[in-house]
Structure formats: C-alpha cells, structure tokens
Amino acid sequence: MRGYLIASCLVLAVFTLFSATQAQADTIDNFTYQAGGNTFAWQLPSSPTILAGNFFPGLAFTIPMVAYSENGIPQDPADLSFLSLPVGGGFFLGDIIQGTAPILAFGFQTYSGPEGAPTFLTGTFPLFDFGNAVDSILTITPVPEPSSLMLLGAGMLVLLGFALKKAIV
Which of 27, 35, 97, 108 is the most exposed place for a label (fewest CB within 10 A)? Predict the structure, then answer.
C-alpha cells in the first residue's frame, strides 16, 4: 500500500511539472489601452507565432483577427500591427470590417526580439495617439497562472485520502 501511494505521488509530481512547463510556454498577456476617455482591451500570447508575410524585419509585425473590446463592448476582430524603434515604436489597430483605424499610437517599443518571433514586454508605456491627438497609455500585464506547487499538494492530499480510506475499510 505504501509503495502504491509513493508511486502515485511520484507520477502525479511528474505530470504536474510537465503541465506547469507547458503552461509556462503558452503564457498570455492582458493589454489595456486608454486614450481620450476610451479603454480598449485584448489578450495575446506573450510570444505570438507570426506567420510569414505578416512581419517585416526591423520594422513591424501584424497579428490578424484579434478579438478586442472598447469600453467593455466587444468589437469586430481587428488586425494589430506593432512597430519597432526605427519607425518610433508603438502600434496600430485596424478594424478590418469597418475599414477604420481606431488606434494609431506611437512612442515606445512594446516588444523585444525579432519581428518574426517577438516577446511582449510587460509594464506601462506612455504613447501618443495620432488618431485622437491625445496622450495615451498601454499597459501589458501577464495573466496569473496557478501555482504548480498548490496543484501538486492538492493531488498528493487526494491520493493520501484514498489510501487512508482503503486502510480504514
């Protein structure tokens, strides 16, 4: 019985560590953009996969069909293009259905790495929105992940409970 419990805990620990590694690779960032009394929000992978034809080395990359909201109201999907420092840094959001660009913000570069494999920086970035002629703020925060230690502990407690139940019966 004791060997079964130890082996089960070991298997659970390996599974939990593997799951935590997978979750780490697929982290998500929350984006909140505030300009002129409007708040835009969306989520993107911390290190998005950029397809060939959607990036220009040293200049920009585009993420197509991003779901976003404006003032809490879901909007049509839009294309997001992020710019690198040679052109001033920043990003713009192009509503592909309405043919408008509600955001044209420039200032700081919000990612590191090459345009074909970028990683978003977290923090608060002051930008200037040329579309609305106002100062704006982009905040990028990572989505919190559950602690793998808590998952491991909970799994071990469940297994211990099953083992004790069998021992009492």
Answer: 97
Type of residue found at 39: T
| Token pair belonging to 12 | 């659970």
Instruction: Give the bridge partners for 36, in sequence order.
Output: none
Report CA Rg, the chain: 22
Q: Which residue in this structure is represented by tokens 């969306």?
A: 42
Contact 81, 102 (CB under 8 A): no
Q: What is the pLDDT along the chain (169 residues), one digit of tens a residue?
A: 556 655 564 555 555 545 544 444 468 999 999 998 999 999 999 999 999 999 999 899 999 999 999 999 999 999 999 999 776 799 999 987 888 888 999 999 999 999 999 999 999 999 999 888 899 999 999 997 665 556 666 776 676 676 767 767 6
Residue 156 domain boundaries: 2-22+147-168
- Shared domain for 88 and 161, answered yes or no, is no
Same-domain pairing of 14 and 35: no
How many domains, the chain?
Answer: 2
Q: Are residues 39 and 11 in the same domain?
A: no
Q: How far apart (Å, rounded) are the C-alpha atoms in residues 83 and 5?
A: 54
Pairing of strands 55-56, 38-45: unpaired
Residues 17 and 92 both lie in one domain: no
Global pTM?
A: 0.70
